[in-house]
Specification:
The structure holds two protein chains of two kinds.
Chain A lengths: L1 H27 L7 E3 L1 H4 L17 E4 L8 E4 L2 E4 L1 E5 L9 E3 L7 E9 L8 E8 L2 E7 L2 E4 L11 E9 L8 E6 L16 E4 L12 E3 L5 E7 L8 E6 L10 E4 L7 E2 L15 E5 L8 E5 L5 E5 L11 E3 L22 E7 L8 E6 L15 E5 L5 E3 L1 H4 L7 E7 L8 E6 L5 E5 L6 E7 L12 E6 L2 E6 L2 E2 L5 E2 L3 E6 L3 E7 L9 E4 L2 E5 L6 E3 L7
Parallel strand pairs in A: 2-34, 30-38
Antiparallel strand pairs in A: 1-29, 2-3, 3-5, 4-7, 5-6, 7-8, 8-9, 8-11, 9-10, 11-12, 11-33, 12-13, 13-14, 15-16, 16-17, 17-18, 19-20, 20-21, 21-22, 23-24, 24-25, 25-26, 27-28, 28-29, 30-35, 31-32, 31-36, 36-37, 38-39
Chain B lengths: L6 H21 L8 E2 L2 E2 H18 L5 H20 L29 H16 L5 H20 L4 H22 L72 H14 L3 H9 L9 H16 L4 H29 L4 H9 L18 H17 L5 E3 L10 E3 L2 H14 L5 H19 L6
Antiparallel strand pairs in B: 1-2, 3-4
Classes of the chains: A mainly beta, B mainly alpha.
Chain lengths: 541, 451
Amino acid sequence: MKHIFSRFSFVLGCLALLSATTSQARAAEGLVIPQFLEETSSAGVDSIYRGDWQYMVGGGAAAFDCNGDGYPDLALAGGEGKASFFVNKSAQAERLQFSRFDSGAELERVTGFYPLDIDGDGVMDLVVLRVGEITLLRGLGACKFERANEQWRFKAPEAWWTSFSATWERGAAWPTLAFGAYIDPKSENNPWGSCTDNVLVRPIPETKGFADAIPLKPSYCALSMLFTDWNRSGTPSLRVSNDREYYEGGQEQLWHVNAGEPPRLYTDAEGWKFLKIWGMGIASTVLSGEQHPSYFLTSMSDNKLQVLRSPPDGPLKPMYKDIAYDRGAVAYRPYTGGDLRPSTAWHAQFEDANNDGFADLFIAKGNVDRMPDFAEKDPNNLLLQKADASFTEVGDVAGVASFANARGGILADFNLDGLIDLVVVNRRETAKVWRNVTPDAGRWIEILLADLSSNRDAIGAWVEVRQGEQIQTREITSGGGHASGQNGWWHFGTGASQSVDVRITWPDGRVGEWQTATTNAFYVMSPNDAPRAWTPAIRAQ
Amino acid sequence: MSGYPNFTSKILKTLLHLAAVFLWLTSLGFASLHAQTAGLTSEAVIQKWYTLSLALIRHTPTYSPPVASRSLAYVGVVTYEAVASGSDRLQSVVGQLNGLDGLPPREPGQSYNELIVLEAALAASIRDLFSNTGPSGQQAINRLSGELRTAVTSAEPDAASVERSTRYGEAIAAHILDWSRKDGGAVIENMGFPWTYSLKKGPEHWVPTNPLSRQQQVPLLPNWGNNRPFAMPTNTECALPAPLPYSEDPQSAFYKEALETYQTSKALTPEQKAIAFFWTDDAMATPTPAGHWISIVLQIAQADRLPLEKLVDVLMRVSVGMADAFIGCWHEKYRHDLLRPITYIKRVIDPDWMPFLLTPPFPEYPSGHSVQSGAAATVLAAVLGDPYPFSDKTRERDGAIPRNFTGFIAAAKEAGISRLYGGIHFRTAIERGYEQGRCIGAYAVALKTLK
């Protein structure tokens, strides 16, 4: 026993030394460390993701503006309990304030939320993932929602729904929806190998409704899905991250989803390589120096950061290299708190937390359910991206290293001060809210896309922000993360740049002109229009 | 080796099997301990708990192959002792297995329900050995335990017998689990990867082979070879000579073996690929090598209706033999600490080479699958006979086509050579590994189980 204790002490000592050394290294690199202030209690957010076995996954959040004031409002999954809806009452650049609101989205058995203007009426709708039914809620305005499954002829089988993504296929007025299912809830005695079918739901042309769901066979217990134009061909494919814990013979998946054709899997012959992970979340970004999206895949222990490495000749193949370890983004075990066991990662999202022009990576962490071989004190990560596209951990010094049992989350600018704030949903504990108060952050720009088509929010567009030689590129997607999604302002840090050039490639392929915009400002952008500056209304807190 | 047996071999198999069963039953006086309650037999209880155990091995992150072999051995001993304690013909292995002393006795003059004893013992041992499995595994254990408990107790009218039998089954499990905690393998931290480890210097020594995994920059379970063996007297009993001397000279034997692995991997036939995949037995994706062989036993037990006492005898012996094989093998792996083919071939022959299988994160010599398959086949051949044609569907749900074997020795040799096809071993590690397994398995064969 003494021997074990001594060894533990030695390892902890080494970690403490490493942590101190790392902090010094970060300071020497001149990195701006983001500063987050937890405001859960004062912000008025009290929502717990409750439940036992069927709620060990899920626990999502949605952030979007439901009342036209520009401030992102919040829907939080409640699991076995009721979901919660909070209207954002924050004043610009002030502390975060939310008010619980009876929106119609307070359903039970909710695992996740994604905002999407399904019917193209300019009012955000909500996709609600549940244990049992998928519920589509039509936005009525003023943060009110009504059930729309029947109205939109939406039918999907009952299942344990855990993931979602949407795209507008070429020429379609309504979105194509992909839903990922988990274990067969009836297979409690032997859940392994019981993954139920994911489905693809396409709209019926010329109508306001959906066709019957198409099963995506084989399905391998999908905990995250993302329509993404991985090769910038103009046609997104569907990435699916699957939980190896429950599938048999499964792997990570990439589906061709071409208009008018049945979905079909990318094959080994096409370059898609076999990978088995405890897939729980997908985050995408275009890393510095890359031309195409890279994908961070959360898992247990080692996480993956995949960059496209297609052979130089011929058409692009979906061949990826895992650079997580090389770039310091493997995040395989806690970096603070003394628990040395491997981590369990869920929601992940790239956002620029210090506005230096490089998207950083937030990872929500938490034990599945008191699994003794994995860390129980498992802090969330905040990995700062450096100019060379490597990452360094700052979660502890930034103030977001919560040991609550995290699942989903959202990074968004909730008080419209140009700094990315944070909400994390926790299992059996209340969600936590952090305000970004970084004093010496860089400048920023936030862009709202307003397409003229029925795809109002321009899902599938690409936003480029140019400052000197550096171009930040962002694919506008709906899906991914862990049961969590957002829609609205898209944030870019711009460092010291007083102005930047912005260009939009719209979902139909039209490439806009480079438009100059002053930083530290909000802009609404539509095709063929100059960026329209927007300012939040002044309101007292 | 594998192949679909023709009609003659099927008849031969049937005759051989009938003869073996007949002789064994004769030795037992045709009596049977077979217990049955409301259609639930002892054999069915064993099949159900073992089937769940194999699923738990696959879905519990600490269950690397050595760890799986250890747990299966303890479950095997518990199962055996639970049945043997109520048998006039089976004798306990107390005193034969290292460190296992007297089991709690039954109360004289009292009756016991054998099915309840067995179920209680299995439930208690599996609950303990898989206490670290995830929430789904815990739920599955609770469900199965509840279902079986209801089934086995509902048909027993004597409440005192139910209580007495339950307590006794649990006492057997508790005693054996207590014995298990002192063997050196009870605590697995960091999924088996040591917190600190110094790589040996020298080109011949193991270096990490997975540059993508932070965890695998140190080798798996470097001290496993120091665990207390089960039936083998010491962990050095079947030690191996040193591997071929390391050399990068194209004329050297070492280079030639590496070249064989390399060239084989570059020209794999579909059959060789199928063999490599069939025997991968990777942690967290399969029941591991030891679980694969247990699965073979369970399939044979069901297909050939092995009598209960034979079944528990085989399960105990084969799992003990495999657990000892992993201990002996791991002792040699870290004594010689040889590099993997991927390291040597990339360094010396072809920097762009990739093997067909993922290279496991520990030293090469000897081949673990060869050692433990050699041990398993030695036990099975001794107890059930060889040749013994059988079909193996263990990997069917993972997409592998079932394979047919003429016997256990043939299957073990195929498991061994699969590692060369997979590009993760040199031939010497396979051939000597198999011999080490044969040597270690003989200790399990030597256990005396019949009174």
